[in-house]
Specification:
Elements lengths: L6 H17 L13 H7 L2 E2 L11 E7 L12 E3 L1 E5 L4 E4 L1 H14 L17 H16 L5 H11 L7 E2 L4 E2 L2 E8 L3 H4 L4 E6 L9 H7 L19 E8 L6 E9 L6 H5 L13 H9 L18 H14 L9 E3 L28 E3 L10 H18 L4
Helix pairs in contact: 4-5, 10-11
Length: 398
């Protein structure tokens, strides 16, 4: 038997090493917004491990980008808007509000493709973004009376951690992207075929992978744009150096060089649709993970325990709503949210005031029948049920 292993044996060895690195934390770790490795295997593709080599001292990466599935928009890398570290389990979710907008934007830009908004996020409502809306409104009311240091801490802990994007609120950008690549590191890695890679977007101080790619894809002197998705002999290989781990990870030495030879048709044909690898969670699933408590409609508020629990905060909130605004308060306004319950504040935080406008541009309407317009109809209905039970038990109030 030959001492040299066959190409298939080497391919299997490389895949086993990649799997080991991922289990040890060098790569993914099973985010909830992407399907797992078993699902990818059934689709005929693999997950690329974006690591920093031994002891995180550094490693080079060389990729050829594959064109997306013909039914998908022809983008180099699909943008994702992700909520990180949600709830006690530090779950991660694709944001329904911003992902719906991204799907609509791409469908408009590529009308010849079929890229409808997935049914799970067609409503475009996100409980975490709703909490962020409330936090922004509260911050605007408090910031004038706060010291600069306190403002920064409050903004960081109450607003920044809830946003699913990079950049400013007026110009939100994806905080992660996914792409289809072939690993050009060696013949053996190329034999692994089409792979799904999740890439960091990066910023000014640390360009990440995507920004580094975009910087290389345009000649700053001539304005020429290099087609990084060209699968023919005139295509390109993108390379960079990754070192460190966690917040200390750096991406340097980004280069785009001509590739020798065309890409294998088998690799191109293997690329599935983006929606086959994304995991969209429902409003209720995200809310339950975010709050760590049952939905408001399922709570018997009369039996809620003492202390700062979500159920007790809800009862206090809707009781205040039915009592009407305090004399020193300005009348509050409500968002037109239909019959959907608003998300309660995260555990341990005081319930913010509901005086705000819909950041998506929706108009506000005054509350009716003396109710606080900042509370959702479902919460108000729950409060009415509580009051009715009290009247039956204790007799008419006042």
């Amino acid at each position: 038997m030959s001492a040299r292993r066959s190409r298939e044996d080497r391919r299997k060895a490389i895949q086993a090493e990649a799997d080991s690195n991922r289990r040890e934390g060098g790569g993914f770790g099973g985010p909830t917004y992407l399907v797992d490795d078993d699902a990818l295997e059934k689709l005929g593709v693999r997950r690329y491990t974006l690591d920093s080599g031994e002891e995180n001292k550094g490693r080079s990466h060389r990729w050829s980008f594959l064109q997306p599935n013909p039914k998908d928009p022809c983008v180099t890398a699909l943008g994702m808007f992700i909520h990180w570290e949600v709830g006690a389990n530090n779950d991660r979710f694709l944001c329904p509000r911003f992902m719906k907008k991204e799907f609509e934007r791409l469908q408009s830009a590529w009308p010849d493709t079929t890229f409808p908004v997935p049914k799970e996020i067609q409503h475009g409502k996100c409980p975490i973004c709703e909490e962020r809306d409330r936090a922004v409104a509260e911050y605007k009311g408090k910031r004038e009376g706060m010291a600069e240091e306190d403002r920064k801490k409050w903004h960081s802990s109450h607003i920044y951690k809830l946003q699913p994007f990079n950049g400013s609120f007026t110009d939100p950008q994806p905080n992660r992207r996914i792409a289809w690549i072939v690993d050009e590191h060696s013949d053996e890695t190329m034999d692994l075929g089409a792979q799904l890679v999740e890439i960091a977007v990066g910023g000014r101080s640390n360009p990440g992978v995507y920004k580094g790619l975009m910087d290389q894809a345009v000649d700053r002197e001539t304005g020429e744009v290099f087609d990084v998705l060209d699968d023919g002999p005139d295509g390109y290989i993108f390379s960079f150096w990754r070192a460190g781990a966690g917040m200390g990870t750096t991406y340097t030495s980004h280069k785009l060089k001509p590739r020798k030879g065309a890409l294998d048709e088998e690799w191109l044909d293997a690329v599935p649709r983006f929606t086959n690898v994304l995991v969209f969670s429902s409003y209720e699933e995200i809310k339950e993970a975010f709050l760590g408590a049952p939905q408001a409609a399922e709570i018997d508020a009369d039996e809620a325990p003492d202390g700062p629990s979500a159920r007790r905060r809800l009862r206090e909130e809707v009781d205040d709503a039915l009592d009407g605004p305090k004399q020193d308060d300005e009348p509050r306004r409500s968002r037109r949210r239909g019959a959907e319950a608003e998300a309660s504040p995260p555990k341990g935080e005081a319930a913010p005031r509901r005086s705000r406008r819909d950041t998506d541009g929706g108009e506000s309407a005054d509350g009716e029948d003396g109710l606080d317009g900042g509370v959702s109809p479902e919460a108000v209905e729950l409060a009415k049920q509580i009051r009715n039970r009290r009247r039956r038990r204790d007799g008419p109030e006042g």
